Amino acid sequence: MPTFKEIAPRLAEQAIELPSWAFGNSGTRFKVFGTPGTPRTPQEKIADAAQVNKYTALSPSVAIHIPWDRVDDYSALRSYSQDLGVELGTVNSNTFQDDEYKYGSLTHTDAAVRQKAIDHHFSCIDVMDATGSRDLKIWLADGTNYPGQGDIRGRQDRLADSLAKIYARIGDEQRLVLEYKFFEPAFYHTDIPDWGTSYAQVSALGDRALVCLDTGHHAPGTNIEFIVMQLLRLGKLGSFDFNSRFYADDDLIVGAADPFQLFRILFEVVRGGGYGANSDVAFMLDQCHNVEDKIPGQIRSVLNVQEMTARALLVDSAALSAAQDAGDVLGANGILMDAFYTDVRADLASWRVSRGIASDPMAAYAASGYQEKIAEDRVGGVQAGWGA
Ligand code: PSV
Ligand code: MN
Ligand code: MN
Q1: CA of residue 370 to ligand 2 center, whole Å
Q2: Relative to the alpha carbon of 139, which ligand is closest?
Q3: Where, by residue number, does the polypeptide cross the bilayer (predicted)?
Q4: Protein residue with its CA nearest to atom 4 in ligand 1
């Protein structure tokens, strides 16, 4: 197995984008609990995201959601972020909150509703031009609740047509990433339920259209690392939304529910060339902190990804290939498990110190007084998503 020292330089290549909405209040359909210090504006969300980067040096960009993060001047928002040491990243569209979208948005039977949804994406691309963002991320809530409610093939055709219009507007340096989700808010069928549908749709668009894999958007028991391998093999893995789940789309802290699954996913990412400075796969979080403080929740999340990345980098790939080729079933499995069971926390702590940050980012943030200050200063923090 390689030593930690040998893999350490590769850790410096890690960047994990934070979702602005993780800093707002969020909850279940039953209750949204407020958290003292919750941001009231997009600027305050970005300031909080910058704290995560300050203590971890792992999160140099923040994804925004339109219109949740609506401001008058996106170039000014970009400068504001840069002054805090972070860039604005992926722009997420939103076609799931307007009454017109009750029966669909990009798939709607009414051309006027489809055009409204397409126009929204055009304005997201305008935002990207001002913020310098590379990726437009589309998560579509479209679907139906009852068999027969919609023409599921017609909806797929209209989706293809709408996406083609959006893609035609994307700049040469920009990308469209299409997220899939197996159910919710629709319960009978969803128009982009799985990686195959997303892959089929983006393949029809072109090279700059890719799949976004949200780890919480699969049926229980799905082998997610297999999907990661396949999309990397096909050159169509654009980005990750990392989170973890016990039941459905729980949006819990990544690595909290199943650290071994996170390790397996990251191993396939590393093995498939999806990790590092030369890779175009974007690492993002898509989480909601319902009861825990949001900034430490995000700090814990990026540290979990880093820890499992380090373990994935520790896999002795030459020995693994040899064991696989020799048909050494238990030997191969043992090589993978050796890396998974390696505790890298002390090594990571010293590595951080060598890079000028605190060995324990959670403790350093807690001691900084920032949480107490925002709790005192900010009154009336907004709910994630509905503050705009
Ligand atoms: C809804 O499921 C969702 O969590 C998707 O995963 C999106 O990425 C996110 O909301 C933001 O729109
Ligand atoms: Mn997502
Ligand atoms: Mn989700």
Answers
A1: 28
A2: 1
A3: none
A4: 286
